Every structure is written in C-alpha cells, then in structure tokens.
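Dear U.,

Please find below the material for section 3 of the report. The protein was modelled together with fe (ii) ion; I have listed the sequence and SMILES used, followed by the predicted complex structure.
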Amino acid sequence: MAEINTIPYFPTFLWSRQLNLDLKDMKKYCLDYKKGATFSVKKSNKGGYQSPLYSDNDVPESMKELKNYIDQTVNTITKSMSIPDCYMSSMWFNVNGRNHYNAKHTHSTPNFPCTISGVFYISIPKPGMGNITFYNDAPSYMKELHSKSMSIEPKENALILFPSWLEHSVSQSKSDEPRISMSFNYLSKTVTPDDKIADLKSGIRRLS
Ligand SMILES: [Fe+2]
C-alpha cells in the first residue's frame, strides 16, 4: 500500500520562552512613564495606555537586558528557519486596567512591514485574564480541519513570538491592578525603508 505523505506547506509557528528577569524596575519604569504621559497612542487598545514607539537605539535602561534576550531569541529563530537576520524596528509598552482589551489586529502592514513580532509580560495581576488569542484565517467551513483560534494565558516573564502577519487580540483585563506588557516588531535586514511590502517568500518544492 502506498504511504500517504503529509506536506506541511503553510504551518504557522509561534515561539515561547520563559525568562527569569527581575521585573521590578521595568514595572516601575512603565508606571512612572504613564503617570507623566499626556496622551496614549490609540491603535488596537480599547481603553488602557499604549506608549510611543522605542527604536533599536533608545531602549530604556531597565529594558536593555530584556531587549538582549529578545534579540538573541529572534536571532536563533531566523537561523533555524533559514530566513534573513532581523533587527528590532519598534518596541512599546501597554498598561491595561479593568475592562481594557485589544481588538483583533495584525502588526505588519504594507506601509510598516515587519517580520517577527511578539510580547513580553511584565505584570499579570490575576491569572486567567487578558489572554492573547491568535486567529487562523482559513475559511470557517474548514474549522474541522483547522481550529479557528487558539489562546494563550499570559504569565509574568513569558516571551511569545509570532509571525507579524498573524491576527490576534487580547481579552479584557479583570483587575484594578495594571496588566503590563511589552510589544515589539522585528524586520528583516533585507527590507529597505523604500520597500512597501514585507519580503515575500515563495518557492518550488520537489515531492519526495
Ligand atoms: Fe499586537
């Protein structure tokens, strides 16, 4: 009987890593900054505070060790996936209070392409809330073959990375204590500032 080959053409990879950083200074930095801020960036956040963007060379002192871990993680991923090296194109932090959430969104757009994005959790006051949900854009009639979404419960010191095009949302926070996360985007070094779309990759695969 001929065997059946499973060909994983379009699998979606996510990566996670549990760090063990001292979160105290990062938490203090975010809350102090928010206290002095006169406005919040408004994007996918419904309520809550979103900081302005930091670039590769203006990362706050308290975040530098974290940034090194993220660089190292992204570097390992790009090597293992045989994709071009990436650099951090932006980073920002989010403070959500009770009932605040983030609507479904993606990080890579034609005008602001990025390759790998992620989140790091600085303060999770209560378990089981503020889950991050990722969405599969396969048609709904395919749901018996592919789940339509999957959620991850946030944990302090956890780092989660995902392809920048992958849609996701964050459920409501149910605590009066601040839920603090750091988000970031990495862009392939092969994408120049003039490129309007992220690097596209296609190929021909020989059946084995
Ligand atoms: Fe996001």
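For the text of the report, you could mention the following: The chain has one domain: 15-185.

Regards,
Y.
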